[in-house]
Design a protein that fits this description.
The protein is mainly alpha-helical. The protein has 5 helices and 2 strands. Helix 2 packs across helix 3.
């Protein structure tokens, strides 16, 4: 059975510079950080919190490398945090380079250059 989502509304002002203030109750409930996604959906604007931390998709790989390198205890935890913070900037750089290549401003790579020769062909 689907429960109906509760809806709350609040009228807010828009400044001359097109800025708004998100009501504190909404801000806190959604755990909004420094950015939100702004989505135009028909004639509505939807604001969604942006999640900046990785969701753990690389954690296992980072931990495996650190263990192989001999990290243990607090040193392992400390170095894990350092390396995890480097993921987002690296991914953003890859996306930036891909956008440049797509717009004819950067080097484009073939699948073979990226992934190497495929097996069985």
């Amino acid at each position: 059975m689907n429960a109906a989502k509760a809806m709350e509304m609040k009228t807010i002002s828009v400044t001359g510079k097109r800025q708004i203030s998100i009501p504190l109750k909404f801000f806190n409930k959604l755990h909004i950080g420094n950015e939100v996604e702004c989505i135009l959906y028909g004639d509505e604007i939807i604001l969604k919190p942006v999640e900046h931390e990785t969701t753990g998709e690389f954690d296992e790989y980072i931990l495996r490398d650190l263990v192989k390198e001999g990290y243990i205890g607090e040193d392992l935890v400390k170095e894990f945090k350092v390396r995890r913070k480097k993921i987002r900037p690296a991914v953003e750089k890859i996306i930036e380079e891909a956008d440049e290549a797509a717009n004819g401003k950067g080097k484009a790579y073939t699948l073979k250059e990226v992934f190497g020769a495929t097996h069985g062909k």
